[in-house]
Amino acid sequence: MLLLTYMEELEKELSALQEYYLTHEKPKNKRDPEFFAFVKEQTEPIFNKVDKWYEEALLFVKNREVQVHPQQVESTEENIKLLLLHSYYIDVRKKRYMELYQSVFYVFDLLKNDIRL
């Protein structure tokens, strides 16, 4: 199933981003055009995957009786996009970052369970 493939790819991406967040320092100048270009180049393919995942996930939860509601899919999409940016800009506390991270993986796990049913 395409949705499962997107989730697996995003899990790998998010794990790599978490590693980046934990091992890098906050950028000296968040408004630096070179840094912005770097972040855009790194995140654009992931943003595209998130959009594809979102479409598939919404179709899945709207067309079946599952544990996940459409609102959770929307919140998860937003949380993934926040993680993408926070991973590079390192502008939230570690606790908040980990809450977003765990929330995304929690919804992914719920979706995976519903797919297997």
Characteristics of this structure?
117 residues; mainly alpha; single chain
Textual characterization of the structure:
- The protein is mainly α.
- Helices cover 82% and strands 0% of the residues.
- Helix 1 packs antiparallel against helix 2 and helix 3 runs antiparallel to helix 4.
- It is elongated and about 50 Å long.
- The two termini are 13 Å apart.
Overall mean pLDDT score?
A: 96
Order of helices and strands: HHHH
Bin the strand percentage. Answer: under 5%
Low-pLDDT parts are: none
Outline:
The chain is mainly alpha-helical and 117 residues long. Helices cover 82% and strands 0% of the residues.
What are the SSEs and their pairings?
Blueprint: H1 2-23, H2 33-63, H3 70-89, H4 94-116
Helix pairs in contact: 1-2, 1-3, 1-4, 2-3, 3-4
